[in-house]
Structures are given as C-alpha cells and as structure tokens.
Amino acid sequence: MRSVMQRLQRWAEGRLPALTRYRRPESLPIELHRRRIYIVPTGFGLGFSVLLLVMLAGALNYSNNAALLLTCLLGAASAASMLVAFRNLDGLRLAHVRAGHAVAGDPLMLTLEFDSARPRQSIRVELADGTIAFALDGRSGTAVQLSLATEKRGWQAMPRMRVWSSWPLGMFRAWSWLRPEQAVLVWPRAEDAGPPPRAPAGDARHMRLYRGDELAALRDYRVGDPRRHIAWKSSARHENLLVKDFEQPQSRPQWQLDWRQLGGMENEARIARLARWVDEAEAQRCSYSLWLPGDEITSSNGPLHYARCMNALARLP
User: Any transmembrane segments, and where (predicted)?
Assistant: First the structure.
C-alpha cells in the first residue's frame, strides 16, 4: 500500500506540480506567486451567489431592468473581489524567520518577517491553532510572532504555515502554504528535583578578598591607608610601618558539571540533571563549566554562557 501511495505521489508531482510542489521545505526568502495561490468561495460568498441567482430569476421573470442591472453590478463586484483577494497575496514574501528559546514542552516564539513592494491589507498567518493578522504599507516590512508547540529537545523542523486573506468583501478566501527549511533548537527540560553537583576541592585560584571586621594579617603601609589601622607597636620592631589588614579570603563558588559524573544513568536522565544544574548555577550567579562528550565549555556565567550550555545539551544525540 505504501509503495502504491509513493508512486501516486510521484505521478501527482509530475502531472500536478502546483498542488504538490510546495509541500516540501524551501529556502528563504519565499515569495508567493500565481502558481501557488489557491482561491475558493467562502460560506458567505456561496450564500451571496445563491441570492444573486434568485435576484436574476426574479428580474428576468418580471422583466425588471433595474433589478437586472443591480444583479449584474453585484455580480461584477463579487468577481472583482476575487481578483483583489488573489492580488492581496500575490508577490508577498517571507524574508526571515527568527526563533527564541524554549525548553521541551513549552511554546517557542517564532518571529516571521514579511515584506512587499505594494500595500496589502488584512493578511493572516495560521500555525496550528494560532492565527495573527497583519498589514503592509509597501515601504517597509513587518514582523509577526507566532508560538510553536514543542514536545522534545533537539532540532525541530518548521511546520507548514498557511497564509490567507478574504479581503476585501469576505466572499473569497485566497491562501497559500509556507514551509521554510529552517529548524529550531529546543532546550531540554530540567528534572524536577535531585542531588546537587559534586563540590570541587578548594582552589586558591577561585578565592577573592572581602572587607571583614577581624584582623587578618599585617602588611606594609601603602599611601592612602587610614592612620588608625597602623600597628604602632609592631612597626616599632621593624624598619617600615605595618598596617592591620582586615581583608580576608572568601571562596567564590564554581561548579564543575561533568557528564562523566553521572555514570549509570540513561542519556536523557543525564541531560535533564545537567540542565537542572545549569539552571541552579545560573540562578545563584555561580561560575560553572560543562563537560560533554565531544564538547568542553570552560568556566563562566551570564546569559550567553547559559545559552551556550543549553544549546550544547540540546544538540546531544
């Protein structure tokens, strides 16, 4: 059965390219043209057509020229609205697609940038259950945002999006499909709870000084030191003045997150735990490093470092 469907699809792509060609991913920019825009009457348009037929029959039956003229004018207006609806999409271009960040299971925000050489009204983009309307003034592009549902971490292909319009009278709906070949990277979802990372041994390279209240040591006098900190009795036994130093070392926490520390766990469980550790380290503003198979990220912190670590976890096989 599957082979029959594949042969039927290949035949359709050869015989009816306008119906099947644009179901596949395409590189940006994507421009709409007459071969990929479809148009059908709406429910309102069908009802209006029935009304015109009734008016036409009545005008001919009673030989009412005024009613016949009105029927012809309304019919011409509805036919012209079909052309306007088609031209509202013809030449529209999807220039860029940008994706935000999201963990698996949360919606990911997509930003679509459209541009056009002429003004356009009441265009809608539909993705899954989300729809947003926009217009173009013909001088600059516009950006619209849609949310994309995510299920699991890793690269996720862009789904097909429908662009449609029923402007100006709502009698006809013109639409087309967009499917960029871009993929978005979904971050892994962190585990709910678990043990903290293994604390590294103390290292003097990760110590800093802070101003305390207790005497830490005596040091040589430096210009600018307050006179009340001079140790006069100790200085009497030395050639130079000595100053009481109240600065004491304070450890700066640094987390070493290592894939190899989680032996015996499944890969997805390891990734979820490392993601939780990365979240906790970033929340506590700690410096942290991350070791992964084939990738070693040196110690740092901040939003860019956090995104780099989460991207590395998301790309793991």
Answer: 37-60, 66-86
d(C-alpha 162, C-alpha 122), whole Å: 14
Based on the domain organization, do 129 and 98 belong to the same domain?
Answer: yes
Is there a single domain that holds both residue 307 and residue 278? Answer: yes
Question: What are the pLDDT tens digits along the chain (317 aa)?
Answer: 556 655 655 665 555 555 545 567 889 899 998 888 989 899 999 999 999 999 999 999 988 999 999 999 999 999 999 999 999 999 999 999 999 999 999 999 999 999 999 999 999 999 887 899 999 998 888 999 999 999 999 999 998 899 999 998 999 999 898 999 989 999 999 998 888 887 654 444 443 434 444 445 667 777 767 777 777 777 777 777 777 765 544 455 678 899 988 888 899 999 999 999 999 988 888 889 999 998 899 988 889 999 999 999 999 98
Query: Any idea which residue has 């429910």 for tokens?
Result: 43
Cα–Cα distance measured from residue 123 to residue 110, given in angstroms and rounded to the nearest whole number = 17
Which residue range forms the structural domain that includes residue 154? 26-186
Claim to verify: residue 119 and residue 43 sit in the same structural domain: yes
Contact 255, 288 (CB under 8 A): yes
pTM score: 0.70
303 and 234, same structural domain? no
Please choose, from the candidates 130, 131, 120, the residue with its C-alpha nearest in 3D space to the C-alpha of residue 167: 120
